[in-house]
Each structure stands twice: as structure tokens, then as C-alpha cells.
Amino acid sequence: MSGADEEPRVALVSGGSRGLGRLLVERLLADGWRVATFSREPAVGLGVDAGGGYDESRFFWGRADLTDPGSLRAFVAEVQRRFGRLDLLVNNAGRLHEGLLLTTPLTKVTELIAVNLTASVVLAQCCAKPMVKNGGGAIVNVSSINAIRGFRGVSVYAAAKAGVDGFMRSLARELGAFDIRVNSVVPGFFDSDMTSHVPEQQRKRIEGRTPLGRLGTAQEVADAVLFLASPAARFITGQSIVVDGGITC
Questions:
Q1: Distance CA 11, CA 90 (A)
Q2: Where in the numbering of this chain does the Ketoreductase domain appear (predicted)?
């Protein structure tokens, strides 16, 4: 995605050790980006284990915890030290807990807000500063249709993701003058770790309620994220792109 005479752009993807995040890391690397990602533990095959093979000049993995703002700030600082710039943040990492609010411990509520909302705010604040110095950039938040349509048992997760979308719209206003675009991708039900436990009968019901008649794929969600990160979306900011096969229409 960079020209032959241009310095490769740098992307930071949270939660890049597996699932959608890992796919985004791989596709960004294939497109010529330099990519940084973090997780609490190394992921086999992602260039951070004994058998990994990514070029260290193009890929960096570090250890960080979404519930620890200090570790997030330290990770962003290290990315800047290694690569000298930052052009794209994908706030992809998230954690789902299913359970009725009346029986959810306060510690779990606090954790869900920290992981799904506060971490995105902290990372955006840290990453926007080098983007201002670079003369522009893009922030893409991965939200959820739980933010726009009520589902039983996920009220805290839904509240956090709705917060991410509200944060996105306000931040787009703040950062537009610096040529930094801020958008959200709002996935519906797609094949992922979060949906792997869904019983087959429930899966069939979801597919039946979806106009396109199936669950999505991680590739389809990644397509939307990478579109918003690309020059093709250079006049799009403050928007939520819903990728759900029509289930919320």
C-alpha cells in the first residue's frame, strides 16, 4: 500500500495474536505495512515463538495487558521507538462475558469496561499524538452489533461497545483538523472464538434471521477494516460500517 519511494506505514493492532486481529496483522504485513501487536502471552506461529519467522524490521510483538493502562502506554512508546512513526491503530481486542446483570460480579463488570472501552480510549490517546506529528493517520475501532441492538445476557459488553462508538464520533470531530480519521466497523455474527461455542440450533436461528442467510467470515470483517484504513476511505470519518449480513436492518 506504500509507494516504492515512501517509508512503509506503521499499524498497531490490538489483540493480534488470534482470530480477526491475527488475520489483520497478516493482511497488513502482506500489503507492505510494518505491524505491531500485543497480547498477554505469545501466540504460536505469529513470529513471536521459537518457530516464528516474521522480519523484525517489519513486525513487532510485545506483552501488554488491556486492563493495565501503563502497559499499553509503554507498548505504544516502544512501537514509536522501533519504527519511528505510527499511521494506523486498529482497536480490535475485546472480551465477551455472557450472563445476566443481576448475577454478574462487580469485578467482572469493571473488567469488561476496562477491556472493551477504556483500553480503546487509552490506545487512541497514545497513538493520536504521533499521528499528529506525522501529519495524519487513521483509527478503526472494532465494535459490535450488540451496541445497536439489544441481546439478552450481554448488557455490560453492549454498554462498552456503545461507548466505543460514541467515543469514535466525538474523537473524529477532535482529530479531523489533523487529518486523522476515526471510524468503527460493527460486525454481526461471524465465525470467531466468540461464536465458536454457539450451539448448532442457535446458529441456525441466527442464520434464519439474517437476510443473507449465513454467518459472516473474519475475512469479510477484515475487508471493511482495511477499507477504512486505506486511501479509498480518505473522506470518511466519524462513521460506523455495519457488517452483519443485514440482521439489524
A1: 8
A2: 9-189
Task: Compute the distance between CA of residue 32 and CA of residue 11 in angstroms, rounded to an integer.
Answer: 11
Q: Which residues are catalytic?
A: 157
pTM of the model: 0.90
Closest CA to 91 of 179, 164, 156, 166: 164
What distance in Å separates the CA atoms of residue 102 and residue 192, rounded to the nearest whole number? 27
16: Cβ contacts below 8 Å, ≥ 6 apart: 22, 24, 25, 35, 37, 38, 39, 46, 61, 92
- Assign 249 to helix, strand or coil: coil
pLDDT the model gives residue 18: 87
pLDDT tens profile 29-77: 999 999 999 987 776 666 544 335 567 889 999 999 999 999 999 999 9
Q: Is the dihedral of CA 71, 76, 77, 79 positive or negative?
A: positive
Question: Model confidence over 213-224: pLDDT tens digits?
Answer: 988 999 999 999
Contact 127, 175 (CB under 8 A): no
Q: Where are the beta strands (DSSP E) in 68-172?
A: 88-91, 137-142
Confidence of residue 167 (pLDDT cuts 50, 70, 90): very high
Retrieve residue 123's grid coordinates: 490506545
What are residue 35's phi and psi, to 5 degrees? -130, 135
Q: In whole angstroms, what is the distance from residue 38 CA to residue 14 CA?
A: 6
Provide the 10 A C-beta neighbour count for residue 29.
17
